Amino acid sequence: MDKDYMVPLLKTNDMVLISYVETLLTEAGIGHLVLDGNMSILEGSLGIIPRRVMVIEDDLGAAIRLMRKMELGHELDADTLARHDKAGGSEAP
Predict the structure, then answer these.
(1) Are 51 and 36 in contact (CB under 8 A)?
(2) Which value, in Å, is the radius of gyration of the alpha carbons in the chain?
(3) In this structure, are residues 84 and 15 in contact, taking their beta carbons and an 8 Å threshold?
(4) C-alpha distances in angstroms, 83 versus 12, 52, 79, 80?
């Protein structure tokens, strides 16, 4: 895997959740980035465009385990999770 490739961990409009997940990922040393955070220019600050929390692909397994440990597994991006599980990800739901 290319360690610089990023994949979506979750997509949400919930800014509190994004802040919490960012804190969790930072404390765990998991590389991440929030995309679409400045889309309020287009949406008029309505919060209708979901923000994406991206993680470095090599850290995806650790991020999934952390999210599930914190009982946030239901927030995980379904497409990323399906690709991860299909590729042999060992994190049980």
Answers:
(1) yes
(2) 13
(3) no
(4) 19, 17, 6, 5
Kindly report, residue by residue over 58-81, the tens digit of the pLDDT.
Answer: 999 999 999 999 999 999 999 888
Q: Quick one: DSSP state of residue 33?
A: E
Query: Residue 34 CA to chain centroid, in angstroms?
Result: 8
Q: How many residues does the chain have?
A: 93
Measured CA distances, 35 to 7, 39, 62, 85 (Å): 11, 9, 20, 24
Residue 9: pLDDT over 90: yes
- Distance, in Å, from the CA atom of 64 to the CA atom of 74, rounded to the nearest integer, reads 11
- Per-residue model confidence as pLDDT tens digits over 14-25: 889 999 999 999
